[in-house]
């Protein structure tokens, strides 16, 4: 093992390639190389192909590495973990990455990678972590994603991905965290979304999705965090969401949802954030359950709502109150106002980063705290 994690290592002055990797080609018994969180710059050399065939884990995250990922990297066919995240790497994900058939944990996020997701990546059937968020990738998610049956953590957020969400993504029965936010996905939510029975985080915010919210969302009973905000969903909020008893965050803000806020949502006992702001909701805001903790920010921009004075909306007429028993607009946050929304949303988006840090610390032999 070579663990030089969290130092101030730099490249050899005047050398454009990452010379430390070339020097390691003489170390024939290496299994783990951890050089994360240094000041290493330069490009990944083609000589990376000559690293020992026993190498299982290569950690180079949080450096200043530039250039592209060399095709020769795919020669490391026994590599289990590859972490190139949080560098300045550009260009394409190598089209031959599927040759790395042992790869379980590719972390390529927070770089400047371009082009489509290569089709060969869907051949990595042992992969259980796939982080390529915060790049400049284009194109679509292949229907072949259903080959990745071991996948538990998937982050494709903050790219330029388009097209519809393939139904195959909902066939990943072991998926725990799904981050697809800040792309340009279109059309409706997949009808088989209910299959993600073990998933506890779904963030598909800031896309171009439309249509009504399916009642099958209520089948996601392990879900803790649901963010569908900043799309163009319309129709009513499904009453059946009250079946999702583990939810502590629902963000449906900045959509085009209409109608009433279901009174059934009062049954959600763990809700911290229920953000229904800037939609087309109307009639009375429910007053029971966790709604007693919500603040006015939860309902901003819904000009046809009425309810308690603390929500900064008009007092309801008797007619509006009768409608409350049918279905009602939505809400936004629990105890603490708009600041709490930001805190809770940040917590879940940070959780993916923490998962990454845990893997870095574990690979580098340092207890995670």
UniProtKB/TrEMBL annotation:
Gene3D superfamilies in UniProt: Ribonuclease Inhibitor
Gene Ontology annotations for the cellular component aspect, listed alphabetically: plasma membrane
SMART domains for the chain: LRR_TYP
Major location (coarse): membrane
Localization (cell): Cell membrane
Keywords, alphabetical: Cell membrane, Glycoprotein, Leucine-rich repeat, Membrane, Repeat, Signal, Transmembrane, Transmembrane helix
Domain of life: Eukaryota
Protein name: Leucine-rich repeat-containing N-terminal plant-type domain-containing protein
Lineage: Eukaryota, Viridiplantae, Streptophyta, Embryophyta, Tracheophyta
């Amino acid at each position: 093992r070579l663990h030089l994690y969290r130092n101030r290592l730099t490249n050899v002055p005047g050398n454009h390639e990452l010379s430390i990797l070339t020097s390691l080609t003489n170390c024939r018994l290496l299994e783990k190389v951890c050089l994360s969180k240094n000041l290493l710059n330069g490009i990944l050399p083609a000589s990376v192909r000559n690293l020992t065939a026993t190498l299982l884990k290569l950690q180079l995250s949080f450096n200043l590495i530039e250039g592209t990922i060399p095709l020769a990297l795919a020669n490391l066919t026994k590599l289990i973990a590859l972490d190139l995240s949080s560098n300045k790497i550009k260009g394409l994900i190598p089209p031959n990455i599927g040759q790395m058939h042992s790869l379980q944990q590719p972390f390529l996020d927070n770089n400047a990678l371009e082009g489509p997701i290569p089709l060969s990546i869907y051949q990595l059937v042992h992969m259980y972590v796939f982080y390529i968020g915060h790049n400049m990738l284009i194109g679509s998610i292949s229907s072949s994603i259903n080959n990745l049956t071991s996948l538990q953590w998937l982050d494709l957020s903050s790219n330029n991905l388009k097209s519809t969400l393939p139904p195959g993504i909902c066939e990943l029965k072991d998926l725990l965290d799904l981050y697809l936010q800040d792309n340009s996905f279109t059309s409706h939510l997949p009808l088989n979304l209910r299959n993600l029975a073990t998933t506890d985080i779904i963030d598909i915010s800031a896309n171009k999705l439309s249509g009504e919210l399916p009642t099958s969302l209520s089948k996601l009973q392990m879900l803790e965090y649901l963010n569908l905000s900043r799309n163009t969903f319309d129709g009513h909020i499904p009453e059946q969401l009250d079946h999702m008893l583990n939810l502590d965050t629902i963000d449906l803000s900045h959509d085009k949802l209409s109608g009433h806020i279901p009174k059934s949502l009062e049954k959600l006992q763990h809700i911290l954030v229920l953000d229904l702001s800037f939609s087309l909701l109307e009639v009375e805001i429910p007053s029971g359950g966790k709604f007693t903790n919500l603040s006015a920010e939860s309902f901003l921009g819904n000009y046809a709502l009425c309810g308690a004075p603390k929500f900064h909306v008009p007092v309801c007429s008797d007619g509006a109150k009768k409608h409350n028993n049918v279905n009602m607009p939505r809400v936004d946050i629990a105890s603490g106002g708009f600041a709490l929304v930001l805190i809770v949303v940040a917590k879940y988006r940070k959780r993916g980063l923490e998962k990454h840090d845990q893997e870095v610390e574990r690979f580098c032999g340092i207890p995670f705290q």
